[in-house]
Hints:
Blueprint: E1 41-42, H1 45-53, E2 58-61, E3 82-84, E4 89-90, H2 101-115, E5 123-126, H3 132-143, E6 149-152, H4 155-161, E7 167-169
Amino acid sequence: MAIQVLAVVPALPAFAAPPEPDGYRMQEYRAPVPATLQGARVVSTTEAADLWRNNGAIFVDVLPKPPKPDLPEGTVWREPPRLDIPRSVWLPDVGFGALSNEMEAWFHSNLADLTGGDKAKPLVIYCKSECWMSWNAGKRAIEWGYSAAIWYPEGTDGWAAAGLPLEERISVPRPGEAPPDPLN
Length: 184
């Protein structure tokens, strides 16, 4: 009679999330992100969708805008559309590790406007999955005293994978950038 021995091995993730850095991520922004953001609540797609359905937070997309390609003079360039979480606000380029004083002031001012100056108002900050831009932007908001910062690391990739609605979004114009021409 054969005796079977079962080894009990705890399930390990396919990869371990990197640890939180002391400062901001300065390069390789599309890479595995930490599982945490000190000072922020981290939410899954299910939790983010619940907040969205209940109007429980302001959703802030921080995906960078694609640079305008070098095109021949007179060529009309249309920025590719950003499919985004409905009712969100797109504040591009605020998740880089280092921001110019102008960009930092612009981000700070937009957060103040969105929250009506109430730093306890919940903000869901996101980008795409494995995007350090949202981690950096969330860290910045926390450092500025936003006590209800919520980081959604799965971003629009997780949102779309769950079959949740997306809509085309135009970004808030960055400093020195003209608003989009509605006729173009």
